[in-house]
Backbone:
C-alpha cells in the first residue's frame, strides 16, 4: 500500500491555520505600518528631519526684532530747580540681512542635506519592516507545515506500530519490530510537542510584529513559481546596491555634511557683511529737565566684521573637521564594501535556494518511492520494520526541509532586493500573489 500524505497534510494545515480567518502578507504588512513602534519612530524622525531642513533656510533670510523700554524718573533737587517726575518710552524696530556670511551658506547647504537624510532613513525603515513582517509570516507558515508533517508522521508510525503488534500476535514478526515501532512513535510524539510549542512562539512573534491578535497567514500555492526576483547577473545587483542602497546614501550624505563642516570652519578666517536698518521712537511724559521734544530716528547701514585673531581656535577647528571628513570618507568606503558583500551573499543565497528547492523536490519523490518499496518489501518479508520506519522518517524530514526551503527562498529574494536598496511594496505584492487566497 502506498502512503499518500497530501490530503492529510492539507487537512491538518487547514485545522491549524484557521483558513477562514487567514490574512495575506500584504494585509499584515499594512497592519504593521500602523502598529510597529520602530517604523512609527522612523516616521516621526522623518518629519523632524524635514522640519530641520526648513530651519536651514532661516540662515539666509533677514531677521527682524522689536525692542521697547518704559522708564519713570523722579528728580529731587537740592537747589532752586523745582522737583520733577518724568517718563521715557522708547521703541526700536530693527532688521538685519546677511550679505556675505560663508559659514551661514555652508550651514544652509548642510540643512538641505537633512531632507535627503530623512528620505534615506525612512526608506531603510520601510524596507526593514517589509523583511521583518515577512520573516515572522514565513516563520509561522514553516512551523505550521512542520507540525502538520509531524502529525502525519505520527499517524503513519502509529499504523506501523499497530501492524507490528498484529504481526507479533500471529507470530509473523518478533517483539523487536514492536519495540522499534514503539520507540519511533514515542520519538515522534516528543517532536510533535516541540513543534506545537515552536508554532505558538512563532505566532506570538507574528502577532507582536503586526499588532493583530491570532494572525493566520496564507500558505504558499501548490506549484507556485518561486523564482520571481533573482534574475540577471550578480554584478547588476551590486551596481544597483551601490546606487540605491539607503545605507550607502546615508554614508554619502554624512561625507557631504562633513565637507560642508570644513567649509564652515574655514569661514572663521573670512569677513562677514550684513545690511542693517532700524527705526526708533522716543516719547517723553512731562518732558525732561532740558527738553520736551519727542524724536524719531531711522538708520540704515552696513556691518562689516573681519576676524583677526581667535587664539588659534579657528585653525584647530579646521584640523578637527578635516579629520572628521576623512573619517566620513572611510565610513562611506566601509558601507560600500559591506553592501557589496551583503548583496553578493544574498544573490548567491537565492541561487542556492532555488537549487535546494529543486533538489528537495526530487528527494521527496525519491523518498516516497523508497517508502513504497520498503512497505512492499516488508509485506513480502524481504524488509524489516525498521526499514519502513526509517523510510517514513526520511520522507517526512524531506517534506519539512522542502517546505522550509520554499519559504526561505521567498524571504531570501526580499532580502536580496533589500540589500540592493530596491525593495518596495510591489516586491512584497509579488510574493503575496504566490500565496493561497
Residues:
Amino acid at each position: 500500500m502506498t502512503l499518500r500524505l497530501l490530503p492529510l497534510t492539507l487537512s491538518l494545515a487547514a485545522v491549524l491555520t484557521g483558513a477562514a480567518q487567514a490574512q495575506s502578507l500584504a494585509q499584515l504588512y499594512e497592519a504593521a505600518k500602523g502598529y510597529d513602534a520602530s517604523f512609527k519612530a522612523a516616521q516621526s524622525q522623518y518629519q523632524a528631519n524635514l522640519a530641520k531642513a526648513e530651519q536651514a533656510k532661516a540662515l539666509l533670510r533677514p531677521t527682524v526684532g522689536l525692542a521697547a523700554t518704559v522708564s519713570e524718573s523722579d528728580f529731587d533737587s537740592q537747589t532752586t530747580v523745582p522737583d520733577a517726575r518724568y517718563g521715557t518710552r522708547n521703541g526700536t524696530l530693527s532688521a538685519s540681512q546677511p550679505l556675505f556670511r560663508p559659514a551661514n551658506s555652508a550651514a544652509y547647504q548642510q540643512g538641505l542635506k537633512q531632507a535627503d537624510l530623512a528620505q534615506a532613513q525612512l526608506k531603510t525603515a520601510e524596507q526593514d519592516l517589509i523583511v521583518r513582517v515577512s520573516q515572522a509570516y514565513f516563520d509561522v507558515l514553516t512551523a505550521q507545515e512542520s507540525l502538520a508533517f509531524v502529525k502525519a508522521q505520527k499517524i503513519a508510525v502509529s499504523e506501523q506500530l499497530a501492524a507490528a503488534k498484529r504481526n507479533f500476535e500471529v507470530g509473523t514478526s518478533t517483539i523487536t519490530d514492536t519495540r522499534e515501532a514503539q520507540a519511533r512513535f514515542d520519538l515522534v510524539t516528543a517532536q510533535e510537542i516541540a513543534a506545537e510549542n515552536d508554532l505558538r512562539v512563532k505566532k506570538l512573534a507574528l502577532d507582536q510584529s503586526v499588532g493583530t491578535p491570532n494572525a493566520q497567514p496564507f500558505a504558499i500555492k501548490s506549484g507556485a513559481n518561486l523564482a520571481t526576483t533573482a534574475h540577471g547577473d550578480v554584478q547588476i545587483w551590486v551596481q544597483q546596491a551601490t546606487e540605491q542602497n539607503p545605507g550607502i546614501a546615508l554614508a554619502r550624505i554624512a561625507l557631504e555634511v562633513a565637507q560642508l563642516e570644513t567649509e564652515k570652519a574655514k569661514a572663521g578666517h573670512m569677513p562677514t557683511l550684513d545690511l542693517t536698518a532700524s527705526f526708533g521712537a522716543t516719547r517723553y511724559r512731562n518732558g525732561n529737565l532740558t527738553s520736551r521734544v519727542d524724536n524719531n530716528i531711522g538708520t540704515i547701514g552696513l556691518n562689516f566684521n573681519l576676524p583677526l585673531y581667535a587664539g588659534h581656535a579657528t585653525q584647530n577647528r579646521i584640523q578637527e573637521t578635516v579629520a572628521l571628513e576623512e573619517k566620513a570618507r572611510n565610513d562611506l568606503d566601509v558601507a560600500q564594501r559591506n553592501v557589496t558583500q551583503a548583496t553578493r551573499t544574498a544573490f548567491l543565497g537565492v541561487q542556492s535556494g532555488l537549487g535546494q528547492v529543486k533538489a528537495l523536490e526530487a528527494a521527496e519523490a525519491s523518498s516516497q518511492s523508497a517508502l513504497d518499496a520498503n512497505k512492499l518489501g516488508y509485506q513480502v518479508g524481504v524488509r524489516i520494520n525498521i526499514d519502513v520506519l526509517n523510510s517514513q522518517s526520511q520522507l517526512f524530514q524531506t517534506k519539512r526541509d522542502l517546505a522550509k526551503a520554499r519559504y526561505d527562498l521567498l524571504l531570501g529574494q526580499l532580502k536580496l532586493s533589500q540589500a540592493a536598496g530596491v525593495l518596495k511594496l510591489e516586491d512584497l505584492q509579488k510574493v503575496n500573489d504566490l500565496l493561497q487566497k
About this structure: The two ends are 34 Å apart (CA to CA). Residues 6-61+101-270+311-432 form a domain with the Outer membrane efflux proteins (OEP) fold (CATH 1.20.1600.10). The first strand starts at residue 63 and ends at 75.
